[in-house]
Design brief:
Layout lengths: L2 E3 L7 E3 L3 E2 L5 H13 L4 E3 L7 H13 L9 E6 L9 H12 L6 E4 L4 E2 L17 E2 L3 H13 L6 E4 L3 H10 L6 E5 L7 H9 L3 E5 L7 H9 L13 H10 L3 H10 L4 E2 L6 H8 L8 H8 L33
Parallel strand pairs: 3-4, 4-5, 5-6, 6-9, 9-10, 10-11, 11-12
Antiparallel strand pairs: 1-2, 7-8
Helix pairs in contact: 1-2, 2-3, 8-9
Amino acid sequence: MKTILLNNADKIEMPIVGLGTWRAEPDEIKNAVLAALDCGYRHIDTAFSYNNEEAIGNALKEWFTSGKGKRTDVFVTTKLPCVGNRAEDVEKFLKLSLERLQLEYLDLYLIHAPFAFKCESNFIPQLEGDGSFVLDMNDNVLTWKAMEEQVKKGLCRSIGLSNFNAKQLQNIYKASEIKPAVLQIELHAYLQQRELVKLCQQLSIAVTAYSPLGSPGANTHFNTKYNYSLSNFPDILGNFEVNEIAQKHNKTPGQILLKHLIQQDVAVIPKSSNPNRIKQNINIFDFELSAEELKILDSLDKGENGRIFNFLFFKGVEKHPEYPFVLKSRC
Ligand SMILES: NC(=O)C1=CN([C@@H]2O[C@H](COP(=O)(O)OP(=O)(O)OC[C@H]3O[C@@H](n4cnc5c(N)ncnc54)[C@H](OP(=O)(O)O)[C@@H]3O)[C@@H](O)[C@H]2O)C=CC1
Ligand SMILES: O=C1CO[C@H](CO)[C@@H](O)[C@@H]1O
């Protein structure tokens, strides 16, 4: 499996394809992780807030015990939740994730998002009477310093950021002793964020693309869970040009979208609970997209209009001073 060399002292390698796990129920995700490990995945992406770390931990334990692989063979990422984004809470949340995952250390710990919410004692975000999230005024530099301490303590091998914009990333970069190893952001054919990707490359920060297939089904989830819907939710897998290129290579549209990213040295973490699609999503190393095909895929970028995760499903989040995006009306 192709890997990306991270900028940290240990020269850790992050497999360029990982398994995403958001929106997967515990039983479903256990089987998905086992299926993924069996067909060659060595990188699993989760988060405290996905409520599936325990099931993933059970899958990993079963796989290690079976003798098919050992801890050092797998790259495991999880994330500090928005309800834990403050320096004094980093170690507590990291240790909780380790306990749930039944691991001694993480390969990568990310600050899930630059903004923070206050929470109830059960880690559920506090809500105002009108359903708005209660914002917490956090200092990301202080949170980062606490993240650095976790590397020094050996609880995680590398640390990074997710959903930070260029300015927020540069602030952390300048203030840091241990540089961010990874920036995980929404990236797919309709939201290509070229300037941010270029900045990461200049700073030797690896980029991981989340929702690389356009997160089909996410809008239903936003609606059910948060009573929020995105207008014009994109169907990237159904895009005409993507399907034409897929036919030429005898591949699926999903494989073309993933290949477009990995050919730019961007890591991808497609989520699937379906054994056939799990296999399909890693079976992307036996063909190359031509320069002309890459150009066609590059031209599908819709800029900010292609963004799915504006986080407005967290009612009131745009009022947080660390809200990372410039909102534009979608057309
Ligand atoms: N840092 C952050 O803030 C965020 C991180 N993430 C991470 O990124 C991962 C991936 O993003 P996600 O939003 O889940 O979206 P993806 O773009 O990975 O899409 C996942 C959806 O696509 C379906 N699917 C998977 N493979 C294929 C295929 N080859 N052809 C057609 N459909 C397919 C899956 O269904 P099925 O299971 O039935 O195959 C699932 O419904 C997440 O799971 C999570 O780990 C995601 C969002 C935000
Ligand atoms: O990773 C993510 C998946 O979706 C969540 C919302 O339900 C977000 O918290 C998030 O960033």
